[in-house]
Specification:
Elements: H1 17-38, H2 42-54, E1 61-65, H3 71-80, E2 83-88, H4 91-104, E3 110-112, E4 125-131, H5 140-150, E5 151-162, H6 169-190, H7 195-204, H8 209-219, E6 221-229, E7 234-241, E8 253-255
Parallel strand pairs: 1-2, 1-4, 2-3, 4-5, 6-8
Antiparallel strand pairs: 5-7, 6-7
Helix pairs in contact: 1-4, 1-6, 2-3, 5-8, 6-7
The structure holds S-adenosylmethionine.
Length: about 260
């Protein structure tokens, strides 16, 4: 899966895998700059919060799924001593991650793979994290099941994903920014209009934190905490692979 045209954007409702991979490959060269610019650098803080919450120790094997250009993985590698592997199906995003690993002299094994069919043995990771990736899955339930398969029982999970703030003044202003202003800046910098319309459309269609907790629980995770970040713009979902069957219901702590 290489290359990608700036003109093509996946349908945000069906999100066919190949089209998603091509879209990310097409915007890979401007992805990092836009991430930091559009979030006013808040994304860096969210990633730090995520890797801190995963609390991986030296020698632990951690998968950064949908690693993209590798920022979440680098945030963990530098601080924890964990053995981090990044996986993503976009060759273009992985190429940028590879360049960054060389420049920083921070070795990061990278695997080109689809999250819905990972090339890893069952129970091969102690921790799994994913930032802004699951929203793009063609089949979210299948993705969660695959994540549960590769984690060992008791292994920790951290999912950082956009969410929709409530209807407060902040929420209203943010929605205006996200759906009207952000796509324009995204288009100016990346030269592509589509991906930055796709972004708010997929966030709008994404399950609420409580619905997501139900899906994670059905896939075999115990959901431990759902932490709302920056007024609800993003949510950090923390859990662990249940030791036994996925039949126990969710017991979630919502942290505003
Ligand atoms: C918005 S980027 C996030 C990248 C990185 N995690 C970050 O925090 O900046 C989403 C990434 O998820 C990857 N992705 C989406 N669906 C995927 C799938 N089914 N399998 C593998 N990678 C996927 C895309 O290729 C893209 O690199």
């Amino acid at each position: 899966m290489t290359g990608g045209s700036l003109g093509q954007v996946p349908d945000p409702k069906t999100r066919p895998g190949q089209a998603v991979a091509d879209m990310f490959s097409a915007i890979a060269s401007t992805y990092d700059v836009l991430n930091h610019l559009l979030s006013l650098n808040v994304d860096r803080r969210w990633r730090r919060i995520t890797t801190t919450a995963l609390a991986s120790g030296p020698g632990e094997r951690v998968l950064d799924l949908c690693t993209g250009t590798g920022d979440l993985a680098f945030s963990l590698v530098g601080r924890s001593g964990a053995r981090v592997v990044g996986a993503d199906f976009s060759a273009g995003m992985l190429a940028i991650a590879r360049q960054k690993a060389r420049k920083r002299d921070q070795p990061l094994p990278l695997v080109q793979a689809d999250a819905l069919a990972l090339p890893f043995l069952s129970s091969s990771f102690d921790g799994l994290m994913v930032a802004f990736g699951v929203r793009n899955f063609e089949d979210l339930d299948a993705g969660f099941r695959e994540m549960a398969r590769v984690l060992r029982p008791g292994g920790r999970l951290a999912i950082l994903e956009f969410s929709s703030p409530d209807r407060s003044l902040f929420g209203t202003l943010y929605r205006f920014y996200f759906s009207r202003v952000l796509p324009r800046i995204g288009r100016l910098v990346s030269g592509a209009a589509g991906p930055y319309h796709y972004l708010p459309a997929t966030v709008e269609g994404f399950p609420s934190p409580s619905a997501l907790a139900g899906m994670l629980s059905a896939a075999g995770f115990q959901v431990l905490e759902q932490r709302s970040l920056t007024g609800g713009i993003a949510t950090l979902h923390l859990g662990a692979k249940a030791a036994a069957s996925p039949l126990a219901g969710p017991s979630v702590r919502m942290v505003p």
